[in-house]
């Protein structure tokens, strides 16, 4: 699978110029955001009927997780340009998706 580097590059460019949390703090933030995503999934799937969230909450929380990961990468690899980091991340994502797909059983044909 081809994942275009520009899917990440703009966020990485912005993060490289702004937010200055250290990596340990970002790992804590990532854990927090992952918990919020998990809760949104539980609510959406009906496991927490007493709670309500706005429509699209799972996508919003997933975006928060992705942004935290991108921000963490800019802090762990400050010597790399956003473009280099984006290209390396896109290449890694492509390889991982290919491996994941290769291990999954094919769905039965519709028809």
- Specify the biggest β-sheet: none
**C-alpha geometry:** flat
Count the helices. How many? 4
CA distance, first residue to last residue: 26 Å
Helix and strand run: HHHH
Enumerate the spans where pLDDT stays under 50 for 5 or more consecutive residues: none
Structural class from helices and strands? Answer: mainly alpha
**Radius of gyration, taken over Cα atoms and rounded to an integer in Å:** 17 Å
Helix content: 55-70%
Which assembly state applies to the chains in this document? single chain
Number of strands: 0
Strand percentage, roughly?
under 5%
Give the overall average pLDDT. 87
Describe the overall structure.
The chain is an all-alpha fold and 111 residues long. Helix content is 68%, strand content 0%. It contains 4 helices and no strands. The protein has helices spanning 6-17, 23-44, 57-76, 82-103. The two termini are 26 Å apart.
Describe what is shown at a glance.
This protein has 111 residues and is mainly α.
Which helices and strands, and how do they pair?
Blueprint (H helix, E strand, L loop, with lengths): L5 H12 L5 H22 L12 H20 L5 H22 L8
Helix pairs in contact: 1-3, 1-4, 2-3
Task: Provide keyphrases for this structure.
mainly alpha, 4 helices, 111 residues
């Amino acid at each position: 699978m081809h994942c275009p580097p520009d899917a990440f590059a703009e966020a990485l460019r912005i993060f490289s110029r702004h937010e200055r949390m250290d990596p340990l703090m970002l790992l804590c933030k990532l854990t927090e955001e992952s918990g919020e995503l998990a809760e949104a999934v539980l609510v959406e799937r009906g496991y927490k009927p007493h709670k309500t969230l706005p429509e699209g909450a799972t996508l919003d929380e997933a975006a928060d997780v992705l942004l935290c990961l991108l921000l963490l990468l800019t802090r762990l690899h400050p010597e790399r340009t956003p473009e280099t980091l984006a290209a390396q991340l896109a290449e890694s994502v492509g390889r991982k998706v290919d491996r994941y797909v290769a291990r999954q059983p094919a769905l039965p044909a519709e028809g």
